[in-house]
Amino acid sequence: MHISEGVLSPAVLAGGAALAVVGTAIGLKKMDNAAIPRVALLSAAFFVASLIHVPVGPVGLHLVLNGLMGLLVGWPAVPAILIALLLQALLFQFGGLTVLGVNTVVMAAPAVICFWLFRPLLRRPGAPAAVGAFACGAVAILLSGLLVAAALLTTGQAFLQVARLVVLAHIPVMLVEGVITLFIFFFLQKVRPEMLEGIYA
Amino acid sequence: MSAIQEPFSEGTSLMHRLDPRVRLVAAALFAVLTAAVQTYAAALAALALALVCLALARLPMRKVLARLLVVNSFIIFLWLVLPFTYPGDVVWRWGPLAVTREGLLITGLITVKSNAIIIGLIALAATMPVTTLGQALQRLRLPEKLCHLLLFTYRYLYVIEQEYRRLVQAMKIRGFRPGTNLHTYRTYANLAAMLLVRSYDRADRVYQAMLCRGFHGTFYSLGTLSWQRRDGLFGVAAGLALLMLGYVEWGLPRPR
Question: Which end of chain A is more exposed for a tag (fewer CB within 10 A), N or C?
Answer without folding.
Answer: C
